[in-house]
């Protein structure tokens, strides 16, 4: 009887150990969840860097537009095909081989 009491804690300890290992590896805050979150963070940092670069381009474009009419005119010519009065527009087409 005394021998049974001495070993009665072992199944309980094993169950607690298994439960703790499950939490360590598979819980919402476990190792696998942490690795997945690290990948998501890395991907989001790449997205954020691309957005920051685009924002910087837009900021520079806004500053150029605010600086004077020359940049507005250049943008209108390039993107909208603006031609001033009494100007002649030439379209040069390369020959296809």
Structure description:
This protein has 97 residues and is mainly α. The chain has one domain. The chain has four helices and no strands. The radius of gyration is 34 Å and the shape is rod-shaped. The mean pLDDT is 87.
Please sum up the structure shown.
The protein has 97 residues and is an all-alpha fold. It is built from 4 helices and no strands.
Task: Provide keyphrases for this structure.
single chain, 97 residues, mainly alpha, 75% helix, 0% strand, rod-shaped
Which secondary structure elements does this structure contain, and how are they paired or packed?
Elements: H1 2-7, H2 9-26, H3 31-67, H4 69-80
Helix pairs in contact: 3-4
Strand content: under 5%
Mean pLDDT level: 87
Give a short account of the largest sheet: none
Low-confidence stretches: none
For the secondary structure, the number of strands is 0
Shape: rod-shaped
How many domains?
Answer: 1
Q: Count of DSSP helices? A: 4
Q: What distance separates the N and C termini?
A: 100 Å
- Category from helices, strands and their pairing: mainly alpha
Tell me the series of helices and strands, N- to C-terminal.
HHHH
In oligomeric terms, what are we looking at? single chain
Helical content class: over 70%
> How large is the radius of gyration?
34 Å
């Amino acid at each position: 009887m005394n021998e049974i009491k001495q070993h009665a804690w072992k199944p309980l300890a094993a169950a607690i150990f298994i439960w703790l290992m499950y939490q360590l590896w598979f819980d919402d805050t476990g190792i696998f969840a942490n690795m997945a979150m690290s990948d998501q963070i890395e991907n989001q940092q790449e997205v954020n860097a691309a957005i920051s670069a685009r924002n910087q381009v837009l900021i520079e474009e806004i500053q150029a537009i605010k600086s004077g009419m020359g940049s507005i005119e250049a943008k209108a010519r390039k993107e909208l095909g603006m031609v001033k009065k009494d100007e002649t527009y030439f379209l040069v087409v390369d020959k296809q081989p």
